[in-house]
Design a protein that fits this description.
Blueprint: H1 3-18, H2 24-32, H3 42-49, H4 60-76, H5 86-100, E1 163-166, H6 173-186, E2 193-198, H7 209-219, H8 231-248, E3 252-259, H9 262-265, E4 276-281, E5 291-294, H10 300-314, H11 320-323, H12 325-334, H13 339-351, H14 357-365, H15 370-373, H16 381-389, H17 394-405, E6 410-412, H18 413-420, H19 428-434, E7 439-440, E8 446-448, H20 451-462, H21 465-494, H22 508-526, H23 535-544, H24 546-552, H25 555-572, H26 575-591, H27 595-610
Parallel strand pairs: 1-4, 1-5, 2-3, 3-4
Antiparallel strand pairs: 6-8, 7-8
Helix pairs in contact: 1-4, 1-5, 4-5, 7-8, 10-12, 10-13, 12-14, 17-19, 17-20, 17-21, 18-21, 21-22, 21-23, 22-23, 23-25, 25-26, 26-27
Length: 617
C-alpha cells in the first residue's frame, strides 16, 4: 500500500526540481492568475511537495495548471525533462487518491519493525530523502559557489568537521543551506538521508536539544512508542540509529537550521564520522569546533542577477530591469546587496506591474524611511533584524545604537569609548560581532556596520526619546574628542620638534597616522555642522584640519569641510569664523583649479571680515 502515492510524489518532485524549484509564493500567484482564480495556500502546496498530502478534488484544476507551468519551466532548463500530457498527470493523481483511500491525502499508517532500530531506507529516492522544506528564495542561488559546504575539511584527528554558516539576518543562510542540501540529495551524495531540523534559535524559546533529538529520531523512522523515556537514553538511541544507518545504507546529511548556541547543536552531532552536519546561525558558534563560513553580502552583479531572476520567474515578459538597468543597480545598492531586501524589492515590483524601477529606487533612497518600504506584507527586513537584536543585553543594545550614530563608514575603539563616555562594557562589541550586527574592519580595533543595519538602528533611536537624548549627548562627547585630538595633531604638524602633550600623540608621524585612519569619519563629522547643536564643534573641527589637508594635498576634502564651516558659522552668527572659513575655502578652491569660485569665496571673506569689529583696517 502506498506505491501509487509514492510515485505521484516522486513525479511531482522531479518536475519541481527540473523547473529550478519555483518559489511557493510564485505557485500561489499562479493559481490567482487562473480564470476563475484558484485560491490556494502555500502550506497546501508545501504538503504536496513534502509528501504529506495528495491534492483533493477541489484542487484538481489548480494541480493540472501547476504541472503544466512546471513542465514549461523545466523545458527552459538544461536538464532535458520530458513533458507529459495533461491526461497523464490526471491519471497519476487519480491513482494516488485511490491509493490513499480518500481525497484529503494524509500520511499512511506505518508498520514499525519489531526492534528499536528503524529499517534502513533503500538507495535512491526514498522516504528519508524527503525531509527538506521546499525552496522559497531565488537570491540564495547567487551564492551556490559555496556548494562545497557539504565537503567539510577534516579535523586534526581525521573526521570531517561540521560546517557552521553564520551571517546577518536576511543574508540567505537558510536558503543557501537548503540549496546545498537539495543539490546533495539530487546527486545521491547522502543515501542514508537528508534531514532538516529548525532550532528556532533567534526566537524567545529556542528548541531544546533533547526535543530536537526526539524529532530527528522520528524522522529517522523510530516509532514514538519506542523512543526511550530519559534524555540520555534518547541520545544513545539517536547515535545508535545513525551508526546503523551509516553501516547499512550510507552517510546522512543533517541540516540544523537557526541555531542559537553551540550547546544547542552539540547533542545532535553524529558519533559516526561518515555523516555530515550543516548548521546555520545568526551567531558565530565559536565553541562548536566547526568549519566556520561567514556569509557575506552578494556582489552587485549577483544582486542584479537575483533581482532579475525573481522578476523573470513571476513574469517572463517583464522587461523593466532591462529597460532601467541603472535604476535596478541603484535598487540593489540601496538594498545593501542583502538577499532578503532584494527578495522584498522584487516582490514589490511583482505586486505592482505598473511601478517603475526608478520609482522604487526613489522610495528606498531616504535612509530614514527605507525600513518602511522594505516590507511586502510577508517579509520584513526590520523583523529579521529585530530577531538578531532580541538577545542583546541592555548595554550591548545601547552600544549597538552608538555605533550606528558614529560618523563615517567605520568606528574605532577609541572613538566608541569617547562617545560612550567611559570604558566599554566587557565583551559587548564581541557580542555584536558574533551576532553579525557589526563586523571587524581591517584588523582589530575598528568595526563597520551594514547600511541597512545602520538605518534600522537609527530608526530605533528616533522612536525612543530617552534613547535619542542619550545618543545626542554621545555625539557631543565624540565631537569634543575629535576637536581635542585634531588640535593636538595640528600643533605637532605646525611645530614637529615640539614637545607632545601628555597623553597625546607620541610624535608627528603618530598624529598623521591617526588623521589618516580617521579621515572619513572626521569628514563625516564636519557634516554635522548643519545641526545647530553641533555647529560650533564642526567649525572648530574643520578649521583645525587645515594643516592636515595641505600636507596630504586633500584639497577636495578641504573644499567640502570649509563649505560646511561657512554655513555653520553663519548659522551661529560668528562673523569672524565665517570669514576665516570663507578665506580657507577660497584657497582650497584655487588649489582645485576652480578659480572663479575661489575668487568669489575670497571676496566673501573680505566682505565678512569688514563686518567684524576691530578688522576694518
Amino acid at each position: 500500500m502506498g506505491e501509487q502515492a509514492q510515485r505521484f510524489w516522486d513525479e511531482l518532485a522531479a518536475v519541481y526540481e527540473a523547473a529550478a524549484r519555483s518559489t511557493l509564493e510564485l505557485l500561489v500567484r499562479l493559481g490567482l492568475r487562473q480564470s476563475p482564480p484558484a485560491v490556494i495556500s502555500d502550506a497546501t502546496i508545501s504538503g504536496w511537495l513534502n509528501r504529506r498530502t495528495v491534492p483533493g478534488p477541489a484542487h484538481t484544476r489548480y494541480y493540472l495548471a501547476m504541472t503544466a507551468f512546471l513542465q514549461s519551466e523545466a523545458g527552459r532548463g538544461p536538464g532535458g525533462y520530458t513533458a507529459r500530457p495533461e491526461e497523464w498527470w490526471r491519471q497519476l493523481l487519480l491513482r494516488a487518491r485511490q491509493d490513499r483511500k480518500g481525497s484529503c491525502g494524509g500520511r499512511p499508517a506505518r508498520k514499525d519493525p519489531p526492534c528499536s532500530l528503524p529499517v534502513p531506507p533503500t538507495r535512491g529516492r526514498c522516504r528519508t530523502l524527503c525531509q527538506l522544506p521546499a525552496l522559497a528564495s531565488s537570491a540564495a542561488t547567487a551564492n551556490l559557489r559555496r556548494s562545497s559546504l557539504c565537503c567539510a575539511r577534516r579535523g586534526p584527528t581525521g573526521p570531517p568537521l561540521p560546517v557552521a554558516v553564520s551571517g546577518l539576518g536576511g543574508a540567505g543562510k537558510t536558503s543557501l543551506a537548503l540549496h546545498v542540501a537539495h543539490a546533495a540529495r539530487r546527486g545521491d551524495l547522502f543515501p542514508g538521508g537528508v534531514h532538516f531540523v529548525d532550532l528556532h534559535g533567534a526566537e524567545d524559546h529556542p528548541v531544546a536539544p533533547d526535543n530536537a533529538v526526539q524529532a530527528l529520531l522520528r524522522a529517522l523512522g523510530v516509532a514514538p512508542e519506542r523512543i526511550p523515556p530519559t534524555p540520555d537514553e534518547r541520545a544513545g538511541l539517536y547515535w545508535s540509529v545513525l551508526e546503523g544507518t551509516a553501516r547499512t545504507q550510507g552517510p546522512v546529511l543533517l541540516l540544523a537550521d537557526n541555531a542559537a548556541t553551540s550547546a544547542q547543536v552539540v547533542p545532535l552531532l553524529p558519533g559516526d564520522p561518515a555523516h555530515r552536519v550543516l548548521i546555520t546561525s545568526r551567531n558565530v558558534l565559536a565553541q562548536l569546533g566547526a568549519q566556520q563560513v561567514r556569509l557575506a553580502m552578494l556582489t552587485p552583479e549577483a544582486s542584479l542577477e537575483a533581482l532579475d531572476g525573481a522578476l523573470a520567474a513571476a513574469a517572463p515578459d517583464d522587461r523593466r530591469l532591462a529597460r532601467e538597468e541603472d535604476a535596478a543597480r541603484e535598487v540593489c545598492r540601496l538594498c545593501g546587496y542583502l538577499p532578503l531586501a532584494l527578495q522584498i524589492a522584487a516582490a514589490l515590483l511583482i505586486a505592482d506591474p505598473g511601478k517603475s524601477v526608478a520609482e522604487l529606487a526613489d522610495e528606498l533612497r531616504d535612509v530614514e524611511t527605507r525600513m518602511e518600504y522594505l516590507e511586502d506584507g510577508e517579509g520584513s527586513v526590520r523583523a529579521a533584524f529585530d530577531l538578531s537584536c532580541r538577545r542583546l543585553t541592555g548595554e550591548q543594545a545601547y552600544l549597538f545604537r552608538l555605533m550606528a550614530f558614529a560618523p563615517g563608514p567605520d568606528v574605532s575603539a577609541e572613538t566608541l569609548t569617547s562617545s560612550h563616555g567611559g570604558p566599554l562594557p566587557p565583551r559587548a562589541v564581541d557580542a555584536l560581532v558574533r551576532a553579525h550586527l557589526v563586523e571587524p574592519r581591517d584588523g582589530r580595533g575598528r568595526w563597520r556596520m551594514h547600511d541597512l543595519v545602520r538605518g534600522y538602528a537609527m530608526a530605533g533611536v528616533r522612536a525612543d526619546e530617552d534613547l535619542r537624548l542619550r545618543c545626542e549627548e554621545a555625539c557631543i562627547r565624540l565631537l569634543d574628542h575629535y576637536g581635542d585630538r585634531v588640535a593636538e595633531a595640528r600643533k605637532l604638524l605646525l611645530t614637529p620638534t615640539g614637545t607632545p602633550a601628555p597623553g597625546g600623540f607620541a610624535d608627528r608621524d603618530a598624529a598623521l597616522a591617526w588623521l589618516d585612519a580617521e579621515r572619513t569619519s572626521l569628514m563625516a563629522a564636519t557634516a554635522w555642522a548643519a545641526e545647530p547643536g553641533h555647529a560650533a564643534a564642526a567649525v572648530r573641527l574643520a578649521l583645525g584640519l587645515g594643516e592636515y589637508f595641505g600636507r596630504r594635498r586633500l584639497f577636495d576634502d578641504a573644499v567640502v569641510a570649509y563649505e560646511q564651516a561657512v554655513r555653520a558659522a553663519r548659522l551661529l552668527g560668528d562673523r569672524f569664523d565665517e570669514a576665516k572659513s570663507a578665506n580657507n575655502l577660497g584657497v582650497a578652491l584655487r588649489r582645485t583649479q576652480r578659480l572663479e569660485e575661489s575668487a568669489e569665496a575670497c571676496r566673501a571673506a573680505l566682505r565678512t571680515y569688514a563686518e567684524v569689529p576691530g578688522t576694518e583696517e
